[in-house]
Amino acid sequence: MTFDRDAAVAELVALLGDAAVLGSPADLSGYERGTRYGAGRAACVARPRDAREVQQVIRWARKHELRLIAQGANTGLVAAASPDDTGNQVIVSFERMRHEIDLDVHNRTVRVGAGVLLQSLNDYLQPHGLCFPIDLGANPSIGGMIAANTGGARLMKYGDVRRNLLGLEVVLADEPATHLDFMSGLRKDNSGVDLKQLFVGTSGAFGFITSAILEVHPLPQQRACALLVPSTPERALDLLRAFELKCGELLTSFEAMSKAAMECVFRFRPQIRNPFGETVPELVILVELTSAMPASMGVDLESMLETVLTELAESDDATLADALLGRAEESWQLRHAISDSLREAGKVIAFDISVRRSSIQAFRDLMIQELKQRWPHLKVCDFGHLGDGGLHLNLVWPHDCGIEPDAAVIQEIRAFVYHVLVSQFQGSFSAEHGVGPYNSAIYQRYTASNQQHIAGSLQRLLNPDGALGTVKFGP
Ligand SMILES: Cc1cc2nc3c(=O)[nH]c(=O)nc-3n(C[C@H](O)[C@H](O)[C@H](O)COP(=O)(O)OP(=O)(O)OC[C@H]3O[C@@H](n4cnc5c(N)ncnc54)[C@H](O)[C@@H]3O)c2cc1C
What we know:
By secondary structure, the protein is of the alpha+beta class. It contains 14 helices and 21 strands. The strands form six sheets. The chain has a five-stranded antiparallel β-sheet. Strand 5 and strand 6 form a beta hairpin. It is globular. Flavin-adenine dinucleotide (FAD) binds next to strand 3, helix 5 and strand 10.
């Protein structure tokens, strides 16, 4: 079938109205390129307003043999929401589904449209003393967060999106555009297979998420932060253990920042100062405690943190070399400035990986040593969510190193890191960003073939013609 783009677009406009379709190159450009990776050409952008219009888009696309890609806020980091170069993929944007927010105070859940942005949801919840606590340096849509199973910096306390998902409404890209309703909002439900989980973390390749029910949490009434310098990087895990034992569920974040990563921030963001003076420590941990109880109820987090730090400093165990209490805003500013500062220092080869917490230091040590030996011009600027075993092992190929970045060498570096990670450490090649064209080959290489077979069968069942998404989970 030859595809008459203009006729197809006109038909979609007739179905859904002018505002529902974007087709000019100027209008399309903002949707065709991902935040960091992925760029191509879209046939058009469809902007449905509800699940029924999503079904109409699917039927229309099937008739014209067009493929579909869901797009939320386009902040994903694996190119999964970007079109390829064929020009026959339609981006289905959820930006006109940003208004449905319906709070059930007594169930402590909120029903949200897939396009609702995280910040808007939290702005809505705040006067009710509630929040959706998945925290990251971007403002994604709820649908995109579900499809990517977003983690973030407070995962150790609140979990990922999956842990907070109590209901889902999905439309499949099959012949009848099947509508699935899992919107129970129940915390306990063992009445069968929990099918909604199939749509979490599967990069929008199984179905379109149109609405969700999320568990929301009491807004923290207190927050206390400190920057810790472990006596050696190896002792960071002892500090983590000590904090978990002493602070229990109050411990919310335990984020690590390497010396090389912080040096980039201090160089390229001069407004952010090194809180430790002249010398940048080898490793700094940002620890955060939060509580939904006000200090007036008896537990003052600042005092608690101070006590823990004093105990650690005075103990014979010598895990702590230095600590700075307070400065929460400054500390998070430093942590969140890392990614962009690295990009100013050079070409970034990014790895979003995880290993068992007990192996994280051994993995770091091995990587730092091996990478230095093999590619001495690379800087290992790692940072990450030590509390949950997540590590952004970001490598910088500096602009000023005298060697031009080479695609073949970058491929070799990626292959080397993933090989060590998976075969020696049984780690995950995608801790929180999901699977997309950016790392599909790694998925094919390192996911067991029997698991790929099951995933592929599910994908064929739910998305029979492969019309939806940018990822193939089968072999
Ligand atoms: C500065 C920055 C910091 C970040 N930090 C973190 C972090 O700490 N932790 C973390 O986990 N991630 C992080 N991310 C990644 C990113 O924000 C998440 O992956 C995000 O949840 C994607 O949501 P989105 O709405 O932008 O989705 P998009 O980028 O638009 O899409 C992402 C995926 O979801 C699919 N999708 C979107 N909407 C739907 C829908 N309605 N139905 C079905 N599929 C859909 C897309 O097809 C695609 O596969 C960060 C990104 C940036 C830019």
